[in-house]
Amino acid sequence: MLKRLNGRLSIPISVDTCKSAVAEKATDYGAEIINDPSAVARRLSIPDRGLLVEGTWADVTVFDPAVIDKAAFENPHQLSVGVRHVFVNGVAVVRDGVHTRSRRDPPPHSGAQTAQ
């Protein structure tokens, strides 16, 4: 798939993996960004987070890489720009850059308290 996408997109290709061999091949085939979103979840012993796999809790952010964030070291407290969509546990909370007013309570196993 990466071979076919390489050179056809105007955005960077990002691959999520925790395996160095996969990351190396992905960069060989044109991936520019390598992430390991499951590393923190593994460290915290939360097995169903950090993976975009059926049956897991998925949080996804879709952003426009051409839009440069306003925040900088000298002026860090700026609202983010360029975020197009955010899905928390599969539910859109930001769509086309606008908050949908959806709220997602944490999954029951997280230990977090839900509002009563």
Question: Structural class, please?
Answer: alpha+beta
Mean pLDDT: 76
C-alpha-based Rg, rounded = 17 Å
Number of domains: 2
How many DSSP helices?
3
> Helix and strand succession?
HEHEHEEEE
Question: How many angstroms does the end-to-end distance come to?
Answer: 46 Å
Strand content: 15-25%
Please give the order of strands in the largest beta sheet.
3-4-5-6
Task: Provide a descriptive summary of the structure in words.
The strands form 2 sheets. The protein has a 4-stranded antiparallel beta sheet with strand order 3-4-5-6, with no helix packed on it. 3% of the residues are buried. By secondary structure, it is α+β, with helices and mostly antiparallel strands. It has helices at 2-5, 20-28, 38-43, and strands at residues 14-16, 33-35, 59-63, 83-88, 91-95, 98-99. Mean pLDDT is 76; it is low at 108-116. It has 3 helices and 6 strands; from the N terminus they run H-E-H-E-H-E-E-E-E. It starts with a helix and ends in a 17-residue tail after the last strand. A hairpin with a 2-residue loop joins strand 4 and strand 5. Helices cover 16% and strands 21% of the residues. It has 2 domains: 1-57, no CATH class; 58-104, no CATH class.
Question: What would you say about this model in short?
Answer:
With 116 residues, the chain is an alpha+beta fold. The chain is built from 3 helices and 6 strands, in the order αβαβαββββ. The chain has 2 domains: 1-57, no CATH class; 58-104, no CATH class.
